[in-house]
């Protein structure tokens, strides 16, 4: 069980990293992109997610 | 154009990760003996080869749109992680990556760790090298496989990665010291920009969007990511300066 938890933690850290908001934001942006099938959704969504996650990081610093 | 960016991205990402792995291997080799350290490198290389051999062919049979969606999303999440750290470093909110300091810390820890022999090898030296190479290499393998398969050319991406590995290993073997003069922080910034750019482009395509101008749109996305990152660095630098003064 301990090894399973460590394995899960490793993959969480590897893929999701320090801030899960970025992964959640990317997922939300892709869902909207798929719904409207438009290229212009993702770039501003990613820009906002990056700015938001940076603001969170600097507040914690 | 995208082939050149593909090779460049694989090269930069691999070089950065291999410089970090080299620091760990050197610390293990100098303190715990080269036999254990190099055995760890060999075991990790073998483990990485198994991962690549298992995942590589599997990725080539996935339909391209599905592959671009999943791989693009993963690259985007990866890219944002790299970019976030790079922007925090460039603006002063996070300490710059310093191979000398990391090398000194690894040496200290390796010197004081208890000695335990297993299969004729110093276990600490072996596992330290193994983990260093495997964990740093896993990210390289992931980038090479995903970039390569999505762009339809794993060998091209592998070529960029192999060039970086040979270069870093060669220089590291000659210098027998951490490659602290490699502009790692700038390279990490560049990798973050590349991963985010390709991630945005491929995942949007995989989700059903069509970019105006086709592949040329990658350059527009690249320019947008660079400009936005530079703006964020400038804004955060100012904020950091205000916090330091206050």
Characterization of the model:
- With 61 residues, chain A is mainly α.
- Chain A is built from three helices and no strands.
- Chain A has one domain.
- A two-stranded antiparallel ribbon of chain B has the order 1-2.
- In chain B, α1 (2-32) crosses α7 (184-206) and α2 runs parallel beside α5 (123-151).
- The longest helix of chain B is centred in the N-terminal third of the chain and has 31 residues, at 2-32.
- The chains are: A mainly alpha (61), B mainly alpha (246).
- The A-B interface holds A 14-19, 22-23, 26-27, 30, 33-34, 37-39, 41-43, 46-47, 49-51, 53-54, 57-58, 61 and B 69, 73-74, 76-78, 80-81, 83-85, 87-88, 93-94, 138-139, 196, 199-200, 203-204, 207-212, 217, 221, 224, 228-229, 232, 236, 239-240.
Comma- or semicolon-separated keywords:
heterodimer; A: mainly alpha; flat; B: mainly alpha
Task: Indicate the topology.
The complex is a heterodimer of chains A (61) and B (246).
Chain A: H1 2-15, H2 20-36, H3 42-60
Chain B: H1 2-32, H2 34-60, H3 64-90, H4 99-112, E1 117-118, E2 121-122, H5 123-151, H6 154-175, H7 184-206, H8 217-245
Antiparallel strand pairs in B: 1-2
Helix pairs in contact in B: 1-2, 1-4, 1-5, 1-6, 1-7, 2-5, 3-5, 3-7, 3-8, 5-6, 7-8
Q: Order of strands across the biggest sheet of chain B?
A: 1-2
In quaternary terms, these chains amount to heterodimer
Helix content of chain A: over 70%
**Model regions low in confidence, pLDDT < 50 over at least 5 residues of chain A:** none
Number of domains of chain B: 1
Mean pLDDT of chain B: 86
State the end-to-end CA separation of chain B.
47 Å
The largest pleated sheet of chain A is described as: none
Radius of gyration of chain A: 15 Å
The H/E string of chain A reads HHH
Shape of chain A: flat
Assign a percent range to the helix content of chain B: over 70%
Largest interface: A-B, 29 and 37 residues
Binned strand content of chain A: under 5%
